[in-house]
Amino acid sequence: MKGPLFYSKILLFGEYGIIKDSKGLSIPYNFYNGALKVEDNLEGFALKSNASLKNFALYLKDLQEAEPTLVQFDIDALLVDINRGLYFDSSIPQGYGVGSSGALVAAIYDQYAKDKITVLENLTKDKLLILKGIFGKMEAFFHGTSSGLDPLNSYLSLPILINSKDNIEPTGIPSQSVDGKGAVFLIDSGIVGETAPMITIFMEKLKDQGFRNVLKEQFIKHTDECVESFLKGDFKNLFSNTKQLSAVVFNHFKPMIPEKFHQVWQKGIETNDYYLKLCGSGGGGYILGFTPDIEKAKESLKEYELEVVYQF
């Protein structure tokens, strides 16, 4: 058995903000993917994945008993396959903010959910919200809390515009230009990030009125502007707001930025060669970069390998 491929994703804008109803924009990233496979002799990563799937199956059994109207799975078939050697064969790096658990959740839903909402049907906003709700509860197994957006992106393999918590829709993004000087890129921090501790830090910060004001008046304001500018192809406005966003994150989300990147982060804001932002919850994994001139950014960041995601 080999299931269909599910891709990684990148949340271009909206990390942390979408918890507080900012806009967001998530795009599939086809460089990494994963699929369910069954093999007799499991070892290494496959063995670990199989053990994790066993715990996940028990969690899903409890979930459907607790919320029978939300979702039902063929748990028996899932457990039979796990005993046969089911694992998630994935090239998606874990703890890197590109949706490794999201792709797994999408694959399990696709293979084992009863009466599933399929990608082929007319996906109304209501159906998307139902899917997002199911995926959020499923992915909570891995992170303690989840918006459900990563699995949704992986399942649909389409860019998703988040207008607010209760208003999401598939969207088109400006087409890429291979000769374009502007680019979105990834830098590998070399550190594995963990989502749950970062979310805990953020929730703790939210208790402070000053931080809540910064979030609303600066972070969410610039995030919303970035999303709108990107979708319209207004790159001048995009870079101006990405710079502001980078500065707000540098000043108010320091614990989420790996320490060895503090200077690199600041250098981007000062030189305008590039602007860095969190990719997912931060704390490690990938760091997302935006640049008006990719060659200049490569020169400025020459000690790092830049992985170009999107050129315009």
TrEMBL record:
Species name: Myroides albus
Alphabetical keyword list: Kinase, Transferase
Instruction: State the superkingdom.
Output: Bacteria
Q: Where is the signal peptide?
A: none
- UniProt keyword annotation of NADP present: no
The record, for InterPro entries, names:
GHMP_kinase_C_sf, Ribosomal_Su5_D2-typ_SF, Ribsml_uS5_D2-typ_fold_subgr
Q: What is this protein called?
A: Mevalonate kinase
The answer, when asked if Transferase is one of the entry's keywords, is yes
GO MF, any single term = kinase activity
